[in-house]
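Dear Dr. V.,

Thank you for agreeing to look over these. As mentioned in my earlier message, I'm a first-year student in the group and I'm still getting used to reading structure tokens, so any feedback on how I've presented them would be very welcome. I ran two proteins. I've put each sequence directly above its structure. The first is here:
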Amino acid sequence: MTVHLIKLAVGIESLQHLKERQAWRIKNDPPLRHQTRSTPKRAAEIEGKGSIYWVIRGHIAARQIVKRIEPAQWEDGSPCCALILDRKLVPVLPRAVKAFQGWRYLEAADAPPDATSGAEVRAAAKARAAEAALPARLRKDLRELGLI
């Protein structure tokens, strides 16, 4: 059985920004990884087959295969977990999600499908831009109603 992770891409403004940040990390501090405080208890269901789904500006925007999950250390020497990621970022059909802390499990049946064409990716970006143009209060109310 496969399970995925979902994680907010904190400080990331767009899919392009995430690509640029990861390209820098690949060049300057390989392998590409995301460090997190907690090790997933369902690691065997994730490693090599599950993905991490990145939430950018309130929408699931892309995924990457989690190649390995291994023990690591923060810069201060304290223990953490490293999710070793595939370099390829796969755009997905965006889906709005509420903010949360840390990461969450995402069952395979609940994961958004990959965006299979550039037209889908462009249409999704246009929809996100239209949503961003709404007044903040209206956007909040529509999100609470599950309409965006």
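The second protein is here, in the same arrangement:
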Amino acid sequence: MHPSQSSPGGLWAAYAETMAHPTPDPIAPGQESVWDYPRPPRVERVARRVRIVLGGEVIVDTDDVVRVLETSHPPVYYLPISAFAEGSLTDAAGSSFCEFKGGARYLDVHGGGQARPRTAWNYPDPSPGFEVLADRVAVYPAPMDACTIDGVEVTPQPGTFYGGWVTPDIAGPFKGAPGSMGW
């Protein structure tokens, strides 16, 4: 039987659900919707303070912040490598490729006697338009003790692949949640 002929609960329905775009959440005052973010993504400087704690130690506290905005994703924050505490970033195995930003390398994050393997990444030679990311690092928030923006603790983007930071000033729904593969 062809998937289009299967029952409503069959393979075709499951496929169609993963490909359907969701209805954006209502936007409250002071919020922006991730559904208004562009594709390809945009990189922008922001006047925000980011702080990351691991093992009870502040490993970065900076207001030199850029964020990458992409449709359906919470922002990913990129911080200067030089702002991280000495020894808190070490090279890790593996790499990946973003169709927009280019080749990424992975980093282990260390703090307070703890290590979190492959929980940060950097684009050492980014694609045109993303050059500002060359000396910056993004960090997955879930494995850290805390990641804050202007003193507000962030929630990790759903799923385990994407590294977006969810804050009260953005509205979803966000890619990475179950059923969002085709967004």
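From my reading of the second output: Residues 11-19 form the longest helix (9 residues). The domain at 3-171 is CATH 2.170.150.40 (Metal Binding Protein, Guanine Nucleotide Exchange Factor; Chain A). Does that match how you would interpret it?

Kind regards,
E.
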